[in-house]
Specification:
This protein has 512 residues and is α+β, with helices and mostly antiparallel strands. It has helices at residues 63-99, 116-161; strands at residues 6-16, 19-28, 37-43, 45-58, 164-176, 180-190, 193-205, 208-219, 225-228, 231-233, 295-299, 304-308, 313-315, 319-331, 333-339, 343-353, 363-369, 372-379, 387-394, 398-411, 415-428, 434-441, 451-458, 472-479, 484-496. Helices cover 16% and strands 45% of the residues.
Length: 512
């Protein structure tokens, strides 16, 4: 199985008589096509021809079909009864409407016999009866709609379960010189299969972490994969055929038609550089049962790696199965990174090297300390021999405080001066020594008119912040149990009085 496709091999053991025989292999998935399938064989015979045909197979009626059929009969009967009751309610409302008296005219026979009170009583009776009949009709129509909607859903489900399903049949014509056993292999390429990487990173101690490398396998071929032998490949078949082609990149100027007229915009480049890139990997799936470690095999000069899963596995259709590829152990030095002016937390980070025999592909990584789940994050591609950082959440035993001391501004007629000073305190509440990396930053002016001067940093940082593109200031210290270290930063910033300063970056405005 590749990252976004699979090469599926189905083996069939056959007893062949002497002479020409047609072997029929049935109940294959619909994605088996002549364009993606080849037939191979091993034994004392010759394959003369093969043919792939569509086959329609009756679906067996299960318990669900029987239950749905019975429910459909009940709904048909219920809807028929509701239609009768709705018609009766409508007729009753019409009868009451006709009972409603009209104003008698002079000369009518009823003029002398009907009083105003009789007319009012008759009108009230007709109005009440008509309102009741109309309300009943509305309620009955609402019940009928719900029953009709349910009937449509039942019919749709029955169509899915009943009828016929499409399969493929492969007819293979073989010729054997003498009777004997042989093996036919139907190899087809399926684009409905894929696997993605996922990881569990567990911190063991200050110098060791364990990473469980999983493969989330999904197949949507429509058939049940039971007891299959599975090999996972890191290759992406969509990106291994041809390298990208860099076409000519032409730049042209288009002169104006008349002097003094703005030139028309340039026409879009038809030969702009274009690169074909592999599709973004699919991810997902729930945690599944673990299997034994796989055997890894290099391929393609170390670019492609294959993992052979031991034993036989079951992969149900339209579902994701999580398999353990390998358990890895990495050693390194656990540090706490703190950026007090951004967040008052110490983040546990282990910097290590991927010294395994294959690359770690991008995927989701769940982080544990012991058996406690800390959270999850996206994990990037890490090649063999490359350095990587593993993050294990915050360490509450390391206290981080930031305290602004000075933010003073003096504005003159031509120049303004802003003086900054802050203190950062890091305290180790653990019973053992810990390594801590403290990171801060100084502003980097984007204009010559803005200057940073009188910089005082105590203690002296480990790096040259002037050479850092972001002017980051870094310290690496070891804190003994209950030890506290204090870091102080101060500087003055000068700028013209008639300009507005625009702060950009994680510490906008200099202090919080």
């Amino acid at each position: 199985m590749f990252r976004s496709a699979a090469l599926v091999t189905r083996s069939v053991e056959v007893d062949l008589p002497a002479g020409v025989t047609v072997v029929k292999v049935t109940d294959l998935p619909p994605n088996v096509e002549p364009s993606n399938t080849v037939v191979e064989g091993s034994g004392d015979f010759t394959i003369l021809a093969d043919e792939i045909r569509d086959t329609w197979v009756e679906k067996a009626a299960g318990e669900e079909v029987k239950e749905l059929s019975a429910r459909l009969e009940e709904l048909d009967k219920e809807i028929a009864e509701l239609d009768v009751r709705i018609d009766e309610a409508a007729k009753r409302a019409e009868l009451y409407r006709r009972m409603t008296p009209s104003f008698p005219k002079e000369g009518d026979k009823t003029f002398d016999t009907l009083t105003a009170e009789d007319c009012k009583r008759l009108l009230d009776t007709a109005e009440s009866g008509m309102r009741s009949a109309l309300q009943e009709a509305i309620e009955l129509k609402d019940k009928r709609k719900k029953a009709a909607d349910e009937r449509d859903a039942v019919r749709k489900r029955l169509r899915q379960l009943g009828g016929k399903r499409r399969t493929k049949t492969v007819l293979v014509t073989v010729k054997a010189a003498r009777a004997g056993k042989g093996t036919l292999r139907i190899v087809s390429f399926s684009g409905d299969c894929r696997w993605t990487s996922s990881y569990d990173a567990r911190l063991v101690n200050e110098n060791t972490c364990e990473v469980s490398y999983y493969a989330d396998v999904t197949q949507r071929s429509g058939e049940e994969w039971k007891g299959v032998k599975l090999t996972l490949s890191t290759a992406d078949v969509a990106s291994l055929v041809l390298p990208p082609v860099l076409k000519k990149w032409a730049l042209n100027l288009r002169e104006a038609a008349e002097k003094g007229v703005t030139a028309a915009p340039r026409a879009p480049m038809e030969n702009a550089a274009k690169f074909d890139r592999p599709a973004k990997p699919w991810g997902g799936g729930e945690r599944g049962e673990r299997v034994a470690d796989t055997a890894a095999r290099r391929g393609g000069g170390g670019v492609v790696v294959e993992f052979t899963v031991p034993g036989a596995v079951d992969i149900p259709p339209a579902a994701t199965r999580r398999l353990l590829v390998k358990k890895l152990t990495f050693t390194g030095k656990l540090e706490r990174e703190v950026m007090p002016r951004v967040q008052p937390y110490a983040f546990a980070v282990m910097e290590t090297t991927n010294d395994s025999e294959y690359p770690l592909l991008p995927g989701e990584m769940r982080v544990f300390t012991g058996n406690e789940l800390i959270g999850s994050r996206s994990f990037p591609l890490v090649m063999q021999g490359a350095k990587m950082k593993l993050y294990f959440g915050t360490d509450p035993a390391i206290e981080v405080k930031y305290r602004p001391v000075k933010h003073k501004e003096d504005k003159g007629r031509k120049t303004r001066e802003i003086e900054f000073e802050w203190i950062m305190e890091i305290t180790n509440r653990r019973s053992e020594a810990v390594a801590v990396k403290v990171i801060d930053a100084l502003p980097r002016p984007a204009m010559d008119e803005i200057r940073v001067r009188s910089v005082k940093i105590r203690p002296r940082p480990d790096n040259d912040y002037e050479e850092d593109p972001y002017r980051l200031v870094k310290w690496s210290v070891t804190l003994q149990p209950s030890e506290k270290k204090v870091f102080t930063v101060s500087f003055k910033l000068t700028a013209p009085s008639d300009v507005e300063l625009s702060w950009q970056g994680p510490w906008a405005g200099g202090v919080r």
